């Protein structure tokens, strides 16, 4: 009799275990069906769907991992969308920035070719066409520089370089242009040697872009360039007395395609300062800007000293 009772209790126990397992299996099955539905929804493009689960659920760990993957994919998708929008904006901007001066250049050349202008006026047209061609060349050069940086194809060759001597050499090439544009200039560069690990072509582009930015966009008539040695770094300052940069524009001046003056044509490609920032970062440096509108604007490039 006692053995029958034990068997009966054991049978009840096994039935309870079986019922528990069946309930758990059905629960997991429902959870898997829910996961399948949510994944199908995500596959259709709804990147905001998430799996809801409890800590005790058998599928909790896999749900957490799926949610994490979806979150990462969402971030990548948003980045992709932003990149796609940026490239569309870039193509629109470039088509306008190239088409407008190119149309103007063709107009001048057609006038010369068709002998609409003669004598001194023809010479003036030739000079204007020549200047526009050089402007286009500079724009294309800047565009290719930015594209190489953006695609990580830019190869840097760093070598120990006297930044004072290199800066003087770069600035000397700008003096005729500065005088032609009516700028007064003041260059404060020590005669002593100061060595940094530089890609000389990249540093030349940095300083050229900053000086060109002053000439083209500042509406000022004075420029200062100064090289200052600090404890463990070197600061290259380029300042002007022009119209300055408004407080709302300051955080964006290094953004690709950003234009403080929304009415600018090819002169406002919005790539120059963006290139400067990327080249400075490649040198393990940083760039800062300070501006008081209609008084002073200072760009500071901070680079580490050579070890």
UniProtKB/TrEMBL annotation:
Q: List all membrane-crossing ranges.
A: 6-26
Q: Which UniProt keywords apply?
A: Kinase, Membrane, Phosphoprotein, Transferase, Transmembrane, Transmembrane helix, Two-component regulatory system
Which GO terms of the molecular function aspect are on file? phosphorelay sensor kinase activity
Among the Pfam families in the record, one is: HisKA
The lineage's top-level taxon is: Bacteria
Residues forming the Histidine kinase domain are 93-307
Tell me what topology the record assigns in the membrane.
Answer: Multi-pass membrane protein
Q: Where in the cell is it found?
A: Membrane
- Reactions catalysed according to its record: ATP + protein L-histidine = ADP + protein N-phospho-L-histidine
EC number in record = 2.7.13.3
Task: Report what the protein is called.
Answer: histidine kinase
Q: Which organism is it from?
A: Oceanirhabdus seepicola
Q: What is the lineage of its organism?
A: Bacteria, Bacillati, Bacillota, Clostridia, Eubacteriales
